[in-house]
């Protein structure tokens, strides 16, 4: 590393001694897992230091393709990989004649949507971003394979991310998987991150869920508390354990570190109950069987944890249900009207929703997984009965009207559910429940189903607009027509006429 760069940075925040090439590939894997768009990694070291080995390993790990061809861009200076997560550009500046040539290569443009890995960064002088991660590779002994990796950056986010990733590797070591290959796995919109952990032909799923604490703005934290969204992985352990105890297919817990938010669980695969964007009848009917089984049994409000602690399943209170539905006011109404909802509108909305919820206050309650829909229902080919449906993403489970999960499944936000299929699934659910008990209240369930469906649809319409407007994910807007169609379908009940009239005024 050039002297001026060394002088500009504080000392190395991490120094790692690596005994062999396998260790180099493992470190590259660990760093690849925490890359984000806009990141720059500068690799410094003499010829033969191991920069090429590290670079190939990182790019392959980031791409999730162990055999990916990674040629050296010595003559082209830059090679960009168009990858599912985001673009990754590999620069080799050894033949760079003037530092200003880096600008001609389009580094700034590439960093708008991707990340960059730069060999021989010294050639660029001070044209590289000040928040880059510098990795200096040295050979401190006569050993051919021994390398020392010194990591430099004054950016706290690099120190935090690298520290978390190395801690994750240590956790895998304690779980008996020290050399497992880590691969990025798409997750959700929370702070949780997911990876597949591969050893040979066997895979597991690693979830990293740091305690949210100060990372979440106060307003968001207040909303999470009001609607009872889980804030740490204790919820996953508790709910998953109880689901398995009831004979349902939740991932097996292989190892956990609750203090640091790490969970290693069995991998239930990627097949859902939707194929090519369309619902598969057999799979949806199997999911109905799961719900019928759940709703025919008693579920605890307090779950004992293996460490002796207790987990309290929150109540899905009227306050929580109204707060969720109000996302329609917060995001959807301003989008279509061009102005925020006024206090009078909010007051009327809350009154109507509290009346509707009071009308179903005697409906059956139990565990509500809350996101019982196609992305979270994994098809287990070759299994039988309720084992055919693997359950994930259940950490926000609450105790409330069981009709909610039925509505979540039958009016799936991610795929078109025609009325004929909805009716067939609904009838299958009723039939299963009547077989369980002659006392099943079909009329009461029908009302609860309609109210819960309208509540969930309202929430989702708000969330999808929020994802588009606030989070820069406009693709979610394509789901709005489907959800509005569902809303028309469920509000067409005489006892929901007042809500129907309200939505008619504010949905356009």
User: Which word captures the global form?
Assistant: elongated
Largest sheet: 7 strands, mixed
Strands of the widest sheet, in order across it, are: 1-7-6-2-5-4-3
Determine and state the CATH class of the largest domain.
Answer: Alpha Beta
Which structural class fits the helix and strand makeup? alpha+beta
Helix count equals 17
CATH-level-4 superfamily name of the largest domain: Aminoglycoside phosphotransferase (APH), C-terminal lobe
Q: In the CATH hierarchy, what is the architecture of the largest domain at level 2?
A: Alpha-Beta Complex
For the CA atoms, what is the radius of gyration? 26 Å
What's the helical proportion of residues?
40-55%
Work out the strand percent: 15-25%
The rounded distance between the terminal residues' Cα atoms is 60 Å
Do you know the CATH topology of the largest domain? Aminoglycoside 3'-phosphotransferase, Chain: A, domain 2
Name the poorly predicted regions: none
The number of distinct structural domains comes to 3
Q: Using DSSP, what is the number of strands? A: 20
Averaged pLDDT: 91
Fold and architecture overview:
The chain folds into 3 domains: 3-154, 3-Layer(aba) Sandwich (Rossmann fold); 178-267, Phosphorylase Kinase, domain 1 (2-Layer Sandwich), CATH 3.30.200.20; 271-506, Aminoglycoside phosphotransferase (APH), C-terminal lobe (Aminoglycoside 3'-phosphotransferase, Chain: A, domain 2), CATH 3.90.1200.10. Helices cover 41% and strands 18% of the residues. The protein contains 17 helices and 20 strands. Strand 15 and strand 16 (310-312) form a beta hairpin. Helix 12 packs antiparallel against helix 15 (442-469) and helix 15 runs antiparallel to helix 16. The mean pLDDT is 91.
């Amino acid at each position: 590393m050039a002297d001026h760069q060394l002088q500009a940075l504080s000392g190395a925040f991490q120094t790692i001694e690596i005994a062999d090439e396998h260790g180099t590939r493992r470190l590259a894997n660990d760093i690849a897992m925490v890359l984000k768009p806009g990141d720059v990694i500068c690799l410094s070291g003499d010829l033969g230091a191991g920069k090429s080995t590290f670079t190939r390993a990182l790019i392959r790990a980031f791409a999730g393709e162990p055999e990916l061809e990674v040629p050296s861009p010595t003559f082209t200076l830059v090679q960009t990989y168009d990858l599912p997560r985001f673009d990754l550009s590999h620069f080799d500046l050894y033949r760079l004649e003037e530092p200003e040539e880096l600008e001609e290569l389009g580094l700034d443009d590439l960093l708008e949507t991707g990340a960059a890995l730069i060999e021989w960064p010294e050639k660029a002088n001070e044209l590289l971003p000040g928040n880059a991660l510098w990795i200096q590779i040295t050979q401190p002994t006569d050993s051919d394979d021994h390398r020392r990796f010194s990591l430099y950056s004054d950016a706290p986010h690099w120190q935090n991310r690298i520290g978390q990733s190395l801690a994750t590797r240590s956790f895998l070591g304690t779980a008996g998987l020290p050399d497992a290959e880590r691969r990025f796995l798409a997750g959700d919109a929370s702070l949780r991150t997911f990876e597949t952990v591969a050893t040979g032909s066997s895979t597991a799923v690693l979830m990293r869920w740091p305690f949210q604490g100060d990372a979440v703005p106060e307003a968001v934290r207040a909303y999470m508390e009001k609607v009872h969204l889980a804030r740490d992985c204790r919820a996953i352990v508790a709910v998953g354990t109880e689901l398995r105890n009831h004979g349902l297919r939740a991932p097996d817990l292989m190892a956990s570190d609750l203090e640091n938010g790490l969970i290693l669980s069995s991998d239930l695969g990627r097949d859902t109950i939707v194929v090519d964007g369309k619902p598969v009848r057999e799979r949806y009917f199997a999911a109905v069987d799961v719900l019928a089984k759940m709703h025919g049994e008693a579920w605890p409000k307090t779950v004992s944890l293996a460490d002796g602690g207790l987990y309290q399943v929150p109540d899905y209170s009227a306050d929580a249900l109204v707060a969720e539905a109000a996302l329609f006011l917060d995001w959807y109404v301003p989008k279509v009207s061009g102005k925020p909802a006024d206090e009078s509108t909010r007051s009327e909305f809350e009154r109507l929703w509290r009346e509707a919820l009071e009308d179903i206050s005697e409906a059956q309650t139990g565990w509500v997984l809350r996101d019982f829909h196609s992305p979270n229902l994994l098809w287990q080919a070759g299994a039988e009965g309720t084992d055919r449906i693997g359950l994930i993403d259940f950490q926000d489970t609450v105790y409330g009207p069981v009709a909610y999960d039925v509505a979540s499944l039958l009016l799936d936000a991610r795929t078109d559910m025609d009325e004929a299929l909805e009716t067939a699934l609904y009838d299958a659910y009723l039939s299963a429940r009547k077989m369980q008990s002659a006392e099943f209240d079909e009329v009461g369930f029908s009302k609860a189903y309609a109210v819960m469906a309208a509540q969930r649809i309202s929430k989702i319409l708000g969330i999808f607009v929020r994802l588009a407007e606030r989070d820069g994910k406009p693709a979610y807007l394509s789901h709005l027509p489907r959800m509005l169609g569902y809303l028309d379908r469920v509000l067409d009940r005489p006892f929901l006429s007042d809500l129907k009239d309200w939505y008619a005024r504010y949905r356009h």
